[in-house]
Amino acid sequence: MRALLSKAIGGPETLEMTDLPDPVAGPGQVVIAVKACAINYPDVIIIEDKYQFKPPRPFAPGGEIAGLVESVGEGVTDWKAGDRIMGTIGHGGLAEKIAVDPSRLYRLPQERSFAEGAALILTYGTTIHALLDRGHLKAGQTLLVLGAAGGVGLAAVELGKAFGARVVAAVSSDEKAAAAKQAGADETIVYARAPFDKDQSKALAEQFKVAGGKAGYDVIYDPVGGDYAEPALRSIGWEGRYLVVGFPAGIPRLPLNLTLLKSCDVCGVFWGAFAARDPQANNAHVEHLFRLWAEGRIAPRVTETFPFERGGDAIAKMAARGAIGKLVVEVG
Q: Is this structure's pTM higher than 0.85?
């Protein structure tokens, strides 16, 4: 089989297409023939050794897949060859086959494509955990979403609307604003590209405050970080919840006096650790997502697909923060 491997620390240009022996399903495992692998920001930083987890090299990036069960190992009774699957695996998805623990897999509905299946669990799973468990978002509240045209951003817009919130989507271009509007955002903000000086930061905070209204935001969903974080925090409402999701623009330093003045919470969102620590709660969230998906209230937006040979290009586009929605590599 072929796999796109990280053999040395570096960017997507360092990935190498390599022939490997086919994996064999051990006890309690299934072998998946990968058909599609979605690309997410962790795939950018995992090959640079900047992610929370550092797999031993060589490894294939790609943590979100869809495909077919090819074989099952001893003790596996819930799956059989030919079953359609989708799921998250941490890494290893940019390979034609992979042996995995089936507890991380879900059944891909017959009416959904492999690209759609690969694009759902990580972004929407992160976001439903963030909004409900960490943000305690309620109907009628106001939600600000930064980076609202990316994979997790569009998921936050859709889920925010599904949960009855007023959603303000903040993005970096008119094209991205249109995508957020299409996903259901009530209002959009187009902000400039960082870095910001003091006056620019103050102006952005005022933009956020105007869109948020006098009461400010009940929940702020931040998968961006960097110079955007402090202006957003300044627009939060009394006892609001600021959700820390990711840092593609850099790790911010927040003035903690703002949290005192607003009596607000700054909440970390680490979905992978949550799913590992409380799989029952995570599975309940995924079931909720499947219901919303079936009802047409959420739908992963796959905006570009790449052939397997160009998997590195998909990661490069994600690194450049140029993606709208989800990027998917067609592996099988």
A: yes
